[in-house]
Amino acid sequence: MMATQHRSAWLPGICTLIAVVNSAAQTPPDISGVWKPAMGRARGTAAAQAPALKPGYKESYEALRAREREANARGEQLATRGLCEPYGMPTMMQVAVYPMEIIQTPKQITIITEAFSEVRRIYLGKQQLTPDDIDPGYYGHSVGRWEGDTLTVDTIGIKPSVRGYQEMPHSEKMRVTERIRRTGQGSLEDRVTIDDPIVLERPFSYTLSYTFVPDYEMVEFVCENNREYVDEHGIVRMKLHDK
Fold this sequence. Notes:
alpha+beta; 9-stranded mixed beta barrel; two-stranded antiparallel sheet; 11 strands; globular
């Protein structure tokens, strides 16, 4: 009888401890703040794997990359999109050395890039929409869920005119899956997988890495340089005087 009473006295404390431990385990990590591309490590697995495009897409993509190499050799920049057009997904997740800011709330992750001030919203705890319910755009529709310390994000609805990773073409069927997690106190990783049954022979994956930038205030980036233009060969030129 005494042993039973002792066990009963301990039970409330044990239950409270279990509840606290479970609550801590379910609390997602804090990924908010400003992050800049970790140059030299940002491409990760991309260097080991090239996108396997299907016939009809492969030839035009390889021709584009060849024109880019030729332009670079001449010290010129080949324009593959409008000069003030947003990068969109997934390219916006890393543009040169420009940082991005993550704002984290229980229901939404908001990502704001310094380059072109692009804004992306990831809705947490919601079901993904059907393609018919999405108006295709630059960023698509993103939903996410926490799996332990990893934020898994599913994005669809990116219009085909938005160039993909390294100008890779895609169809309206493209799906971008990301696994975002902290890899250290001041480091963040985004493992990106692109799946497109129309354009790709198989899914293509690469990894982006970021470094935390404490106390950084994002700078306004507005595309208003009207001195640049694209000539008939797709080369970015600079006006020497107003015409």
